[in-house]
Amino acid sequence: MNKPEVVTELMQFFAAEFPEPDEALTEDTNLLQGWFMDSLAIVTTTLFIEEHFGVPLSRADINGDNFQNVSTLADLVLRKLPGE
């Protein structure tokens, strides 16, 4: 799996899971400032990543750097995938 594929799957998840916010979502939209990422959205996104991509996330993985935008989330997924 490559980064564009992970980004596409994350974008599809966000589009399906969360109501459309005022700001359009792009790969670089800051999710923590002004978009929709509250604590429940972080938990929902964490569960999606773990179940959909089959990668366990530790407490240390769930931080502002990794959840900053779709691109940083994709990087996290790629680091956690076996063999990547």
How is this structure best described in words?
This protein is an all-alpha fold and 84 residues long. The chain has a single domain (3-15, 27-80), classed as ACP-like (Non-ribosomal Peptide Synthetase Peptidyl Carrier Protein, Chain A), CATH 1.10.1200. It has 3 helices and no strands. The protein has helices at 3-17, 39-53, 70-80. α1 packs across α3 (70-80). The radius of gyration is 12 Å and the shape is globular. The termini are close together.
List the keywords.
mainly alpha, Non-ribosomal Peptide Synthetase Peptidyl Carrier Protein, Chain A, 3 helices, 49% helix, globular
CATH topology: Non-ribosomal Peptide Synthetase Peptidyl Carrier Protein, Chain A
The gross shape turns out to be globular
SSE string, helices as H and strands as E: HHH
Termini Cα gap: 9 Å
Arithmetic mean pLDDT? 91
> What would you give as the CATH superfamily?
ACP-like
Low-confidence stretches: none
Number of helices: 3
Strand content: under 5%
Query: What structural category do the secondary elements indicate?
Result: mainly alpha
As a whole number of angstroms, the C-alpha radius of gyration is 12 Å
Proportion in helices: 40-55%
**CATH structural architecture:** Orthogonal Bundle
Largest sheet: none
